[in-house]
Amino acid sequence: MNGPALYERPSASAASWRIALPHSAAAVPVARALVRTALAELAHGADCDTAELLTAELVANAVEHTAVGDCPIELVVQLLPGGCQVEVHDPDPAPPFDLTWPGTQAPDPWQEHGRGLLLIRALSSSCGHRPTTSGKAVWFRLPVVPQQRRSA
């Protein structure tokens, strides 16, 4: 890891974690573990499996599509009363291709790449990107899953 995880609890109804990740494939399991820990620690009602999957996609995209440099990739997990929001910050200011506008062409089923943003659009309640002072943040939100639909 590039830095320590910071845990912030701004109020009784929200909590957030922020961690700098290495600019390598090793960032993906670290990010998944942080999301799993954050959701489990507070017995949060968002779907942990979906949160882990979508986080892995965002982090893998940041590692693959940004140049290695001085700016680390950063993961921010926010637990909110109505769900969770996960952001991945990277140093590239260019918006992610086809995140908020579906492509005109379906991904090739025989290719290894090309489905990550499709998964994020399909499985999150909302997603997007925004510029930051050092690049951009790409994010998704997941709602709280009703108690009767959660696995035991």
From TrEMBL:
Cited InterPro entries: Anti-sigma-factor_SerPK (IPR050267), HATPase_C_sf (IPR036890), HATPase_dom (IPR003594)
Residues covered by the Histidine kinase/HSP90-like ATPase domain: 24-141
Source organism, top-level taxon: Bacteria
Keywords for the protein's UniProt record, in alphabetical order: ATP-binding, Kinase, Nucleotide-binding, Serine/threonine-protein kinase, Transferase
GO MF: ATP binding
Protein name as it appears in the record: ATP-binding protein
Species whose genome carries this gene: Streptomyces coacervatus
